[in-house]
Write a structure and sequence with these properties.
With about 750 residues, this protein is of the alpha/beta class. About 40% of the residues lie in helices and about 10% in strands. Helix 9 crosses helix 10 and helix 16 packs across helix 17. The structure holds 4-O-methyl-alpha-D-glucopyranuronic acid.
Length: about 750
């Protein structure tokens, strides 16, 4: 759901909030006294010097480095190794010749290693990008081998080794194979050519400014390094709401400069394209995918791109969605549209990511059978099997749009003869826009681990296995994350939000990792290994999604945010009586969308039968998705024993309290983390504590007025003059809070 432009539509509350937090952060920066201040730019690749005691075990590391090949990615790997070892251990590895690999860390592909040491073999076959770290005797000398099936895998092996050192893991007798779960591990950037980023909260684009590719692409190269360090192998550089101009010959020449800075890090570049390009910029009078001149146009355009960018990855396509033109213009299917482009890419090895985010945003809200959630399945299930093998259907994790809680999209089980990838959102569009703490790995894990029960009782078929192509034996598939990093020094606007980018990469590599393991790794690498820091940040991050959910979107009602504007402030009334289809159907008697097969929209019937059964029945439907699937009276009693209305009141109060607790938890870390990041994060958490109360009071008062049912603890429905700001806020936040609360409640008065 969206406004025509996310930038135009931001309401006064957001402007106020942004101005406030900006001012707070500037003050924080000015008073920062830390000599060792850190702006967060180095993220998890800080390579801080280990203490002498922690460094001791690594004295046994070889003192040379041997590079077995000459590819650019291998050179990058060696440079990274030298840099990491020098910074963390204060040692200079001396490059030495492959002919005398003594006392060396040896870097090379398996084929290259076998020239040197034919008998050294990994315990299992290495897949593309998988690597093997092995302490081995080569020509009688103790060595540490970093090898892989391909050069990029060697680079990944180097990053893994350095991560182990940073986290003080032992390396003696190491013998470890790591393989990626799926071949597709990509990020999308929603960058516009004018330098703005749609739903980006970390500053302007690192790629574009004023309609051109930036002249200085240093940050783009640094981004590729970050991506490679977590195993991400592709990046789509421009908004899925694509400007046709990206396919102009002169622009492709510019884009090739970005590919040049990605290449040493093994990151493939791809672009989003507008399906109507053959007509709107190509000079044809049609973009009908079945028209031969259109196919020829795509073929020539793609050939032109590969002449400039030989390792180009492919295209992302958003069509027939939110006002974008698509195959429906000519009565054609998504498969017709995807295939015409896929056939142009095929000879070069490129792929098409065709997004399943296709829906009608002019739905008649008066018709209780209408349901936006059904759109992806309705549009794509009928054409399962009609897509070429180099097409991947890119499916958002939930059927609506990255809400704070949604069930998984039924389409994951609805495509059996078509490649698929899950699209997750790293940028926190609906989850606090990086001003609220919301670690999304637990959310994503719930989605990826969800068992679709495709074969009923013949073993689990979780979403992660479906998207990786493991269930239906598809040749390609995997994970796409919408990242939207920007020019802000710390990439996403908030140092803590970078845990989401790190977590996305780690899950895309291995979705079986636990959220606890991921946050422990990230915190160690980002802030060091002080036990108090590790424990406190892990607790805050791991709880943050539930906290955010509890004051913004309880019981699966969706994010009760301003969906017509900034997707950030409370605005539950904006969901209703319009065609966007993010309805929660709250009225004076009850709340929730009836999506049952029996009496509702029938959406639940899109799931495999075991899942359908789970959600269709009130008896088995989980509380946290109740309002997504069912319309119930406010007095309906949950499995927890509470009524729906009391749960909503309680969860908002509890959530706001817990958001305030984040402030006190963080304060225990003063002096344990550098002052610059300490103050930046503190300012954000204080702001969040205030805005959580705004959310609490806005939603509780709104639902109280609708339902007329009192809070059994007497907290809700007080006049503005009696509203009490939470204790413990600093003076600025207190003032901000009271002004915002007054504004918000005045706004709510309109709905009396
Ligand atoms: C890039 C939502 C967002 C839009 C986004 C769209 C999409 O509607 O609000 O900004 O557009 O999803 O994923 O295509």
């Amino acid at each position: 759901m969206k406004s025509t432009s996310p930038f135009r539509a931001v309401r006064r509350f957001a402007v106020f909030g942004a101005a406030f937090i900006g001012a707070t952060l500037i003050c924080a920066a000015l008073v920062s006294q830390s000599a060792a201040a850190e702006d967060g730019a180095e993220v998890w690749l800080r390579y801080s010097a280990l203490s002498p005691q922690a460094a001791k075990p690594y004295q046994r590391l070889p003192s040379h480095s041997v590079l077995l090949g000459d590819a650019a990615v291998l050179h990058t790997a060696q440079q990274e190794l030298l840099r990491g070892v020098a910074q963390m251990l204060g040692r200079t590895l001396r490059p030495s010749a492959a002919s005398s690999p003594q006392d060396a860390i040896i870097l090379g592909t398996l084929a290259q290693l076998h020239v040197l040491a034919p008998a050294v073999n990994p315990p299992q076959e290495l897949r593309s990008d998988g690597y093997w770290l092995k302490a081995a005797k080569i020509h009688g000398s103790k060595c540490l081998v970093i090898t892989a099936a391909n050069e990029r895998g060697v680079l990944y092996g180097v990053f893994a080794l350095l991560s182990k050192i940073a986290r003080e893991e032992g390396l003696s007798n190491i013998d470890e194979v790591q393989q990626p779960y799926a071949p597709i591990r990509w990020v999308n950037q929603w960058d516009n050519l004018d330098g703005r980023i749609e739903r980006g909260y970390g500053g302007p684009s690192i790629f574009f400014a004023d309609g051109n590719v930036r002249s200085d692409l240093t940050r783009a190269g640094e981004y590729a390094r970050l991506l490679a360090s977590i195993g991400i192998n592709g990046c789509t550089i421009n908004n899925v709401n694509a400007a046709p101009g990206v396919l102009e010959e002169s622009f492709i020449a510019q884009v090739s400069r970005i590919a040049d800075v990605f290449r040493p890090w093994g990151v493939q570049l791809s672009m989003s394209v507008d399906l109507s390009s053959p007509k709107v910029m190509g000079g044809l009078d049609t973009f009908d995918p079945l028209d031969p001149p259109v196919a020829e146009w795509w073929r020539k355009k793609v050939d032109e791109i590969y002449r400039r960018i030989p390792d180009f990855g492919g295209f992302v396509v958003k069509a027939d969605s939110e006002g974008r033109l698509g195959p429906s213009t000519y009565g054609r299917t998504p498969a017709d549209a995807a295939n015409v482009i896929a056939r142009a890419l095929k000879p070069h090895g490129g792929v098409v990511f065709y997004r399943a985010f296709v829906y009608n945003h002019h739905l008649d809200w008066r018709d209780p059978k209408n349901d936006r959630a059904k759109a992806a399945y309705d549009n794509f299930h009928p054409v399962d099997g009609a897509f070429d093998d180099n097409v991947i259907i890119q499916i958002k994790n939930g059927p609506i749009d990255f809400q704070v809680r949604e069930p998984v999209s039924p389409l994951f089980a609805g495509l059996r003869r078509t490649n698929e990838a899950v699209e997750l959102q790293i940028t926190q569009e609906y989850t606090g826009q990086q001003r609220h703490l919301c670690f999304l790995v637990p959310t994503w894990k719930e989605a990826l681990d969800f068992d679709m029960r495709v074969y009923f009782d013949a073993g689990p078929t979780p979403v992660k296995a479906l998207v990786a192509g493991r269930v239906f034996h598809r040749p390609v598939g995997g994970f796409v994350g919408v990242a939207n990093v920007g020019m802000d020094a710390n990439w996403l606007g908030s140092p803590l939000a970078m845990a989401n980018l790190y977590g996305f990469g780690r899950l895309a590599w291995n979705p079986d990792l636990s959220a606890e393991k991921i946050i422990d790794e990230w915190t160690s690498l980002t802030f060091g290994r002080d036990p108090l820091v590790l424990k406190t940040i892990a607790s805050m991050q791991l709880n943050s999604w539930h906290v955010y959910e509890s004051y913004t979107g309880p019981l699966g009602a969706g994010t009760l945010t301003n969906i017509l504007g900034n997707h950030y402030d409370p605005g539950p009334e904006s969901s209703e009586e319009n065609g966007w289809g993010q309805w929660h159907r709250a009225d004076h008697a009850g709340i929730g969308m009836d999506r049952t097969v029996a009496t509702g929209t029938g959406y639940i019937g899109q799931y495999p039968s075991a899942v359908e059964k789970l959600y269709e029945s009130l008896a088995s439907c989980p509380d946290n998705l109740l309002l997504f699937f069912h319309h119930v009276p406010y007095t309906y009693v949950l499995h927890s024993g509470k009524t729906v209305i009391q749960h909503i009141y309680d969860s908002h109060y509890d959530g706001a309290d817990r958001a305030r607790d984040f402030v006190s938890q963080w304060k225990t870390l003063e002096g344990h983390v550098d002052a610059e990041r300490y103050r930046d994060i503190l300012a954000r958490l204080e702001y969040q504590a205030g805005q959580a109360v705004v959310w609490r009071d806005a939603i509780c008062n709104w639902i109280y007025r609708l339902s007329g049912i009192a809070d059994d603890q007497g907290r809700v429905g007080k006049p503005v003059s009696e509203a009490v700001p939470p204790a413990g806020l600093n003076a600025d936040v207190h003032n901000y809070f009271t002004s915002l609360l007054t504004l918000r409640l005045a706004h709510l008065d309109q709905f009396r």
